[in-house]
Amino acid sequence: MIMGAAATASAFAGDMRIAFGDLPGIESIQTLAAIERAKERGVNVELIILNDEDLAAQAVVGGQADVGIGAPYTLIQKVGVPIRVFAQISTLRFFPVVNSEFYKTWKDLDGQDIAVQARGSGTEAVMLLMAKNHGITLGKISYVPGSEVRRNALLQGTIKASIVDAANRRAIESEAPGKFVVLPVENLKATDEAVFATADYLKNNAADVDILVEELLKTAREITANPAAAVELRHKYKLLADLGAEADSEITEYYKETAEAGALALNGGGADAAADDFAFFSLAGQIEGDPATLKVEQFWDVSALDRAIAKLGAK
Q1: Reduced to 3 DSSP states, what percent helix, strand and coil does the chain have, rounded to the nearest 5?
Q2: Which parts of the sequence belong to the SsuA/THI5-like domain (predicted)?
Q3: Predicted TM-score of the model (pTM)
């Protein structure tokens, strides 16, 4: 069951408060299903919806949550609390979308306002990196949580340039054919969503963390092998009930496209993902230092992932 934004005052043995820094949508089914499966194995998960990756990270730092979901590389460098990523969920698949009445190329966005998910998010990193690659400077950056929210704002004309996920890109193309241009993005292999926690939490709650990591890997593998499984999981666990049954075909198509792109992390990322992230987030200006000199252990704790791979095998 998805809980509200208020966290409990403390967590007891077997409890896990997960701060979700986004509005759950189609792209969240894998994560939500894995959490439900972790509950079935005895982990008492409270999911805290905060609508903002930055708030989710702050909740972990402040002790209001045990686990966060996002890509907290900037936070890890800037905050003294030892936060560590312990498994990658998915890699970036975002699509910059602009209203063709105003813009048609990256150059047209020089000095123009855009909207992204959150400060320090993958969406912001993509837009900053593309601006750098195309020699432009973006104008005001607004933070608008929820890819569906940004899609609706584009359709309504309240924003003219933003970035959305694959499902909402498809919806925009269907609902307003020809009105928008999807700007090109070079192939990116960087983290979109990962799970992270303090070093102390990972050490003191290894059994619960292991269960969550195993279920994230198993669910990613199941959906990648059979994208229609996402619909089955949605119905089994009564996920995203507000979308209605008509969303099932869109969910299948979304996960088919996601599977073909290899965007779900079948092995949870680890050192290889960290190297890709160092390169990407450094270029985007969100972490400092030469990527070649950054150390995996400064950002990641791969122990739970190693145990899961040893148990489940590598894909």
Answers
A1: 50, 20, 35
A2: 39-230
A3: 0.83
